[in-house]
Amino acid sequence: MLVRDWMSKHVITIAANDNMQRAIDLMMDHHISMLPVTVQGKLIGIVTDRDLRRAAPSDVAVLEVKQILYHLGRVEIQAIMSVDLITVPQNFTVDETAQVLLKHKISGCPVVDDTGALVGVITRNDLFKAMISLSGAPQLGIQFGFLLEDRPGSLQELVDVIRDHNARLVSIMSTYDHAPPGFRYTYLRVFSVDRQRLVQLKEKLREKAEILYIVDHREKTREVYAAPINSGRPLPEAKEL
Question: What's the whole-model pTM score?
Fold first, then answer.
């Protein structure tokens, strides 16, 4: 999933010689917290709501309205903007972009093309939407969490069980983070599940891997297992969300 497919392409920008009041108005009108700063269409900086707060009078509580407005109208954006630009290419993946935002502790950044021209803005909210779409969450269905043995064919065995029960896979996600040696965590989201065959499906899946949890988003139930499923202990009753 590439940034160009999830970024905001309608970019609200501000000129370097505009003032703080103009920036505040734009942010409030468009419900945004970041403005790329441009000169003749060229990206030269960025101003955020944090920059505006830092530049606001420290004794604002004791100032008169006219004094505040005078200050806001006098200070130009080029005096408070950040010029050490953090941008991402439009062909970055969403996970690469998430790493950039996390590394620099920022909520969003401009997106540029191969020539460095501004083509969009990507924010954490945009990334959340992308990850939700990638996970298949809008499809509801059932999500299974597994501790899966890391060997060739182990994932295919789970997929085969699901297909044998005429269910459809929406997404497959897997990670080695925090997994015991020789294992990985795997998460499958499925839909079109015949609930009358769900118990049988769970039992067949248990034969292939340790189930960590089962969340049925349509029926609003979840089963979270505190003890290993393969220990022979009975499945707990599903609980209402």
Answer: 0.73
